[in-house]
Design a protein that fits this description.
Blueprint lengths: L11 E9 L3 E8 L5 E7 L5 H20 L8 E5 L9 E6 L6 H8 L4 H20 L2 E2 L8 E3 L5 E3 L6 E2 L19 H4 L12 H17 L13 H9 L12 H10 L10 H5 L2 H4 L13
Antiparallel strand pairs: 1-2, 2-3, 3-5, 4-5, 6-9, 7-8
Helix pairs in contact: 3-5, 5-7
Bound molecules: adenosine-5'-triphosphate (ATP).
Family: Belongs to the protein kinase superfamily. STE Ser/Thr protein kinase family. MAP kinase kinase subfamily.
Organism: Escallonia rubra
EC number: 2.7.12.2
Length: 295
Amino acid sequence: MNSPVIENLSDLEKLAVLGHGNGGTVYKVRHKLTMEVYALKITRFGEDAGCAAKVQQQATHEGEILKLVDSRFVVRCYGVLDSALDDGGDMYFVMEYMGGGSLQDVLRTRRRLPETTISRVARSVLEGLRYLHGMQIVHRDIKPSNLLINGRGEVKIADFGVSRVVADTMEECDSCVGTCAYMSPERVDPERWDGDYSDGFAGDVWSLGVVVLECHVGRFPLIPPGQKADWATLVFAICLGEKMAMPESASPEFHDFVCRCLEKDWRKRGTVEELLHHPFVTRCSSGRLVVDNAF
Ligand SMILES: Nc1ncnc2c1ncn2[C@@H]1O[C@H](COP(=O)(O)OP(=O)(O)OP(=O)(O)O)[C@@H](O)[C@H]1O
């Protein structure tokens, strides 16, 4: 689809609520003139002035990055409507509509996915990361709810709320941003794992490793079932835990792929380029993305 410019909220008609996130609500909308369907993400700035400023800064940052991105492995943004910013109001992102929902939705209903499907998910995410990293963008929040599926079963990376352009200066609380369950050891405990020297790209690979393993195991894989996923438990599991919930039925290729992603030392971890050539990824059929019975 060519990139239409959407400048007015009044051009859009709300059709349904697609979901809620930490920052706001996502609606299915239709452009009144073209009848094209989009997802409209509304980020609210909240009552608390300090918090609102932070969310506003994050949303503005998300908008700036989104406008630069044009890849078939990354959810497109067709407009950022920020006219309400002066009033400290909401911010609107007009996004490509991904009718298949998120990978999290798929895992909720199917629990486990076959390796062929996981392999295709991994490949799409790696292609998306190759594109983003090539633009010096670290995503920093790769997780199942940020991997969206369109009507053709294609998986794309979404949500740049906490990503950053590498050249940007890091904020003081930088290592706390994002979803800690999928965070790499060097982000969770930079002192122990030399995180201050990492450019962040390897952190996205770690997160992909957790997602891939979760798709096979059918639950968050770094802590035993039934254990509460509080901060301390997660930090221990991510930074020190030796045992991975590797399923017995996993193929040697899957096993090796996950181990390359979940290497605790970011300097030794697999790179996006290396993993795109990994047998677990190359064995999935070429050309098409994720199109099988799973989605
Ligand atoms: N472009 C889109 N097309 C279709 N559905 C979408 C789209 N973007 C988001 N959604 C749906 O809306 C839900 C909320 O998305 P949102 O990005 O606000 O939060 P999240 O990623 O789920 O959580 P968090 O705020 O913690 O990152 C998603 O889980 C997904 O189901």
